[in-house]
């Protein structure tokens, strides 16, 4: 894998932090923390930027709770606060994701944008169809 330099500075760049806040807050506009930060985003993003620049940022404690939905089993959920953690995670992701994805093989799927389960199934079917040896299996289980 090729070495990429100066990524940390890109993570705490204020424009990257603004985009991270925008992405982290999608679908969460009703959260009290998001409402609070939206009142003066530059103030909060500067605080996070200073923490990252000075290397004083530390991940907060997880909040753990139990959630039960209609037809599902009871689940234990652990989550981090929106500020600063979720914004910080998005800021890191936005910088490293394109670099990592570029180095994945074509048959890496799952949580990669535009490469979900259905894309993977189509690729497997095409591989099986194009196989000149007439192979009918792509996975052998014990």
Describe what is shown at a glance.
This protein is 51% helix and 7% strand. The protein is mainly alpha-helical and 142 residues long. It folds into two domains: 7-103, no CATH class; 111-142, no CATH class.
Radius of gyration: 21 Å
Q: Report the total helices.
A: 6
> Which structural class is indicated by helix and strand composition?
mainly alpha
Estimated share of beta-strand residues: 5-15%
State the distance separating the first and last CA atoms. Answer: 34 Å
Shape: extended
Uncertain residue ranges: none
Helix content: 40-55%
Report on the architecture of this protein.
With 142 residues, the chain is mainly alpha-helical. It has 2 domains: 7-103, no CATH class; 111-142, no CATH class. It is 51% helix and 7% strand. It is built from 6 helices and 2 strands, in the order ααααββαα. It has helices at residues 7-11, 14-24, 32-39, 41-53, 82-103, 117-130, and strands at residues 63-67, 75-79. It has a two-stranded antiparallel ribbon. α2 crosses α4. The longest helix has 22 residues, at 82-103. The protein is extended, with a radius of gyration of 21 Å. It starts with 6 loop residues before the first helix and ends in a 12-residue tail after the last helix.
């Amino acid at each position: 894998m090729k070495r990429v330099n100066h990524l940390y500075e890109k993570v705490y760049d204020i424009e990257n932090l603004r985009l991270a806040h925008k992405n982290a807050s999608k679908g969460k506009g009703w959260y009290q923390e998001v409402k609070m930060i939206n009142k003066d985003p530059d103030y909060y993003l500067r605080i996070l930027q200073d923490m990252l620049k000075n290397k004083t940022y530390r991940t907060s404690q997880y909040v753990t709770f139990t959630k039960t939905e209609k037809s599902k089993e009871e689940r234990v959920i652990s989550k981090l606060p929106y500020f600063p953690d979720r914004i910080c995670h998005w800021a890191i992701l936005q910088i490293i994701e394109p670099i990592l994805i570029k180095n994945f093989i074509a048959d890496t799927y799952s949580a990669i944008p535009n490469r979900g389960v259905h894309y993977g199934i189509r690729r497997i079917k095409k591989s099986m169809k194009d196989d000149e040896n007439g192979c009918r299996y792509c996975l052998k289980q014990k």
